[in-house]
Design brief:
about 425 residues, mainly beta, four-stranded antiparallel sheet, 3 helices, about 5% helix
Length: about 425
């Protein structure tokens, strides 16, 4: 609604929508003081502070015959347990938005790569208990009789993860933001987490990783790390900002929810020399940005912003009618506010959309099953051949592009 596609396909409805102030009206509500949430398949996983974790059933979100389309339980509590009590759940994350079930039966004839057990858990950052892992593979197996969730693993060695407020996974590692900084936890053996490194940061908050670079929000803005070695990130640059509450990476741009300064768009084509933040507030309307997610529909790219007391903001970042480079690898964002929904309470979080084309995680573990027997993505060793030579980072140099026969082309920067 309010997009270029809406205008093309339904010009009369678009005109009415624009004349009405571009306000969205249809929604479905369920009670709960939700701080963080992630949708996957038929469920929404939520972190609710001192109430702990609750999972909602949204299988019938589009079912007009159902009075309550978001359910806390489709059956009696005797038949399932969709709540897990924790002391102060601040964030919940699924390792992938795809329905990866690592405990399902794998048929040898399909020649699949293994699905690591790390994808069978939900990850909760709890300010008092540290990292909590909840086995959720049973929600994917189609059997409604085994959905009794509990705290399977609680990890907080010597209180190192006190103040945990954000967690995400990359391959077999979990990254937890806490009072001491950014904790890197090895989940190679998913049932026996190991703290391998604590990266000191003041006010470590939301973080994201794209290929070889890690971006972490903190008190001074965004700190950028070279994370070619996922266990040993090296600081390479800093993006100074007054507020950096949430970050989303999409190709050569970083999108940061910048509080009263709105949405910050940053050129990260070279993460070691990032551009300065370009702020967008839609004329001052976006002034309480807490979270941002980016997604694509049809031929347009959209940013969804949890704008605090203002509710939901929808921006069209790119569209064929005003993005001459739309068919390129990474067109320049040209944000335009196209729709707003006023929520009942302060909007502080959004769910990430579906990464439908992602074939493997950062450790080379398979996430999707391809259509032909033996078809699979690269494993870790094969991926590293694309950017490492003898263990060293391989880059293009100013040397001749054509090397003598038998000699390697390029070299170290």
């Amino acid at each position: 609604l309010g997009s270029n596609l809406h205008k093309l396909a339904y010009p009369e409805e678009f005109a009415k929508f624009a004349a009405g102030g571009r306000e969205l009206h249809e929604s479905h509500h369920h009670h709960g003081n939700v701080i963080s949430l992630q949708q996957r398949g038929e469920y929404v996983y939520t972190a609710k502070g001192h109430e702990g974790v609750e999972i909602y059933d949204i299988a019938n979100i589009d079912n007009k015959a159902l009075a309550e389309r978001i359910l806390s339980a489709p059956v009696s509590k005797l038949g399932q347990r969709f709540t897990v009590k924790t002391k102060d759940a601040r964030w919940i994350a699924a390792p992938t938005t795809l329905g990866v079930d690592p405990v399902r039966k794998v048929i040898p004839e399909n020649e699949e790569q293994p699905h690591h057990l790390v994808h069978g858990f939900l990850y909760v950052a709890d300010a008092e208990e540290g990292l909590i892992m909840i086995g959720a593979a049973t929600l994917l197996d189609g059997d409604p009789r085994n959905n009794f969730l509990k705290k399977d693993i609680v990890f907080n060695p010597d209180g190192a993860l006190h103040g945990a407020n954000h967690v995400f996974t990359a391959g077999v590692y979990a990254y937890v933001s806490c009072d001491k900084g950014l904790a890197i936890i090895d989940l190679s053996d998913a049932t026996k987490p190991k703290l391998v490194r604590m990266v000191p940061l003041t006010g470590a908050g939301h973080a994201a990783l794209q290929f070889r670079y890690l971006f972490v929000c903190d008190k001074e803005g965004v700190q950028v790390f070279n994370a070619t070695d996922l266990t040993n990130p090296v600081a390479v640059s800093r993006i100074a900002m007054k507020e950096a509450k949430d970050i989303y990476l999409a190709r050569t741009h970083a999108y940061v929810a910048a509080g009263h300064e709105g949405l910050a768009i940053i050129d990260i084509e070279n993460p070691e020399r990032p551009g300065k933040p370009d702020y967008y507030t839609a004329g001052g309307k976006i002034n309480d940005a807490h979270a941002v997610k980016v997604g694509m529909t049809n031929a347009s790219v959209f940013a969804y912003i949890a704008d605090g007391h203002n509710g939901l903001r929808v921006l069209e970042l790119m569209a064929p009618n005003r993005s001459p480079d739309i068919w390129g690898f990474s067109p320049k964002p040209r944000p335009e506010l196209i729709a707003t929904y006023k929520t009942k309470g302060e909007m502080v979080a959004l769910s990430k959309g579906l990464d439908r084309d992602r074939g493997a995680d950062e450790s080379g573990n398979q996430l999707v099953v391809f259509g032909r027997r033996g078809a699979r993505p690269f494993n870790k060793q094969e991926m590293e051949k694309l950017y490492l030579r003898g263990g060293e980072l391989y880059t293009v140099t100013n040397e001749p592009s054509v090397a003598p026969v038998g000699a390697p082309a390029g070299g170290k920067k």
